[in-house]
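Quick log. Single chain, no ligands specified.
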Amino acid sequence: MEMQTLSHTRWKCQYHIVFIPKYRQKRLFGKLKRDLMEILRKLCEYKKVEIVNGAICSDHVHMNIKVPPKLSISEFVGYLKGKSALMLYEQHPEERSKWDKSFWARWYYVATIGTVTEEVVKKYIAEQEEDSRKSDKS
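-> predicted structure:
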């Protein structure tokens, strides 16, 4: 993993994050999945966060990202989930419920990548995506 630089900083802050739709509903497929992929790319670009790789499975999202040290990972994940839900509702109003305004569950998983190699995380994400495809077909 190579070092990144800011004006006065050299850094390598890489994270593996996972988050799910509310009640872990299997709703991330088809056009919604494609739109979500573009939305997440755009939001990361706005914050200068690099997506190393990721997978959108039917009931969860995996992302391996490089986050500049000036951003708090918890604030970034909150931004990502909040803005992506608003943008999804704008593009897919049928996904919004009268009673339940939140698209994503409140929790998320985050791990720093340091004790495991990047290849191990990439392999794990690829396996998750394959498993998701198999379960989508059945």
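The two ends are 37 Å apart (CA to CA).
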